[in-house]
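Hi everyone,

Forwarding the result from last night's run.
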Amino acid sequence: MSFTESVNQRDAETLLTLARETIQQGLRDGRALNLDLDEMPDGLNQRGASFVTLTLDGQLRGCIGHLEANQALVQDVVENAALAAFSDPRFAPLTAKEFETVEISLSILSAPEPLLFDSEADLLRKIRPGTDGLILEEGRQRGTFLPSVWESLPEPQDFLRRLKQKAGLSADYWSDSLQILRYTAQYIS
């Protein structure tokens, strides 16, 4: 199943606690948290896709995730928490000192759906600012922005231009073969 319904409050708290415990475990002994999926609530054992974002003093400190649901949601969150803390190539591994004040947030993604459009102007009209996360694909080039990126790029044209650049294309690139998928996210922090 691709996660389409929202995670209830109890399960959200469980996911956030497990993300924090995963990072603590990694700091203590460098090992991954050992999960017993049989002990997890049913909702967390459904296939789901997530991103784990770490921030320090309002600045990004790590963000790793999956766009497609390939494993149990709880496993996805635990795996991404460890990767965001210790393997995001943009940052050095998180330290114990940083862990004291790091903020952890989770994005639970809906299944991506193709967005149909016949021009860049048509695409810009169909994007839902503040709601849509987008995946841009052009041949081997690929990039995504979570819906939370709208906070820093509130204009659809700016959002799309920066997404093109993230995918390794020029900001004004356009092609009839360009593909856009959209998804939404439930935020947990």
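The chain has six helices and eight strands.

Cheers,
N.
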